[in-house]
Design a protein that fits this description.
The protein is mainly alpha-helical. It has two domains: 6-187 and 296-326, HUPs (Rossmann fold, 3-Layer(aba) Sandwich); 209-292, Orthogonal Bundle (Tyrosyl-Transfer RNA Synthetase), CATH 1.10.240. It contains 14 helices and three strands. The protein has helices spanning 19-32, 48-51, 58-72, 89-98, 103-107, 110-118, 127-130, 132-141, 155-172, 211-219, 240-248, 251-263, 268-294, 297-326, and strands spanning 6-12, 37-43, 79-83. A three-stranded parallel beta sheet has the order 1-2-3.
Length: 333
């Protein structure tokens, strides 16, 4: 009998999901759920690391995230969907890991520096923000997965998880497997302003956007700044619209719009219309399924509760092994 490998990943409930979240992680999750013992969690504690001053929408974002996941194709009959804060073992393992994690490991994290530079409207000089990767390590290793499918921006965090696992195993004995990190074919998307698509940057197209809202955003996207007039040739490699073409359009369309851009044979608005056709084909069905799911509040709550109960059993088993390896009294409720 073949035992399925375990895979685990999660997302912060700090805002609505966008196309970058979908292509960078969610597509991979949907594919893996049928071939792996799959666990996917709502990281609502992580949402506090950058949004601690206003937590009023974390619960709503948690529910909306599960709606998006189900609309995109996650099936609770094939995978375990759970909420981080409903499993307190995450916090306990985080504390234990924080005792063995060298401070320089956290200070050199490139994501820590990047977000401090790009999110200037919030004070991120907190332990919670600096220690974010330690909590993430606890989130992952608590379920001892062989694979952690994530977007490319999370790779430094998962590498730190691997380092913490190695350090724990060296100090206390082999408890944790060292997880691998498969990426999707399109791990990073450009946003409306040319930067990485991110809800923090205000440059995202969301899964919950209607077809008209989506087109309104695509229509106003920045393009190659050298194309001031319709007759000016451009460079598709510096145009974020073409970056989305590379993710969503077919090869023939990509070739045609790239050539049309370089020769001024196609205008930017026509290029955007062709892109929007592919976005409609991919995301309008998800939007329509989402409208059906969002109306069934009991279904969404049931998925979260049932999945969290299943996750808690696995977490308790791992934590018992951790306590045994560390020779400290076990946790009891």
């Amino acid at each position: 009998m073949n035992v399925k490998q375990r895979t685990l990943s999660g997302m912060q409930s700090s805002g609505r999901l966008h196309l970058g979240n979908y292509m960078g992680a969610l597509v991979n999750w949907v594919r893996l759920q049928s071939s792996h013992d799959a666990f996917f969690f709502i990281a609502d504690w992580h949402a506090l690391s950058t949004n601690y001053e206003d937590t009023s929408r974390v619960r709503d974002f948690t529910r909306e995230m599960v709606v998006d996941w189900l609309a995109a194709g996650l099936d609770p009959e094939q995978c375990t969907i759970f909420q981080q804060s409903r499993v307190p073992e995450h916090a306990i393992l985080h504390v234990l890991f924080s005792m063995i994690t060298p401070l320089p490991w956290l200070e050199r994290n490139p994501t820590y520096k990047d977000q401090q530079a790009n999110i200037g409207d919030r004070d991120l000089a907190t332990y919670g923000f600096l220690g974010y990767p330690v909590l993430q390590a606890a989130d992952i290793l608590l379920y001892r997965p062989q694979q952690v499918p994530v977007g490319v921006d999370q790779l430094p965090h998962v590498e730190l998880t691997r380092e913490i696992a190695r350090r724990f195993n060296h100090l206390y004995g082999e408890v944790f497997p060292i997880p691998q990190t498969p990426l999707t074919e399109t791990p990073k998307l450009p946003g409306l302003d040319g930067r990485k698509m991110s809800k923090s940057y205000g440059n995202a197209v969301f899964l919950c956007d209607s077809p008209q809202e989506r087109w309104d955003k695509v229509r106003t996207m920045v393009t190659d700044p050298q194309r001031v007039r319709r007759t000016d040739p451009g460079d598709p490699e510096v145009c974020p619209v073409y970056g989305l073409h590379e993710a969503f359009s077919d090869p023939v369309t990509r070739q045609e719009v790239a050539e049309g851009c370089r020769t001024a044979g196609i205008g930017c608005i026509d290029c955007k219309k062709r892109l929007n056709g592919f976005l409609d084909e991919r995301f309008t069905p998800i939007y329509e399924r989402r409208q059906e799911i969002v109306a069934d509040r009991g279904r969404v709550e049931g998925v979260i509760i049932d999945g969290s109960e299943k996750a808690a059993k696995v977490a308790a088993e791992t934590l018992a092994q951790v306590y045994d390896a560390m020779h400290i009294p076990p946790f009891t409720r």
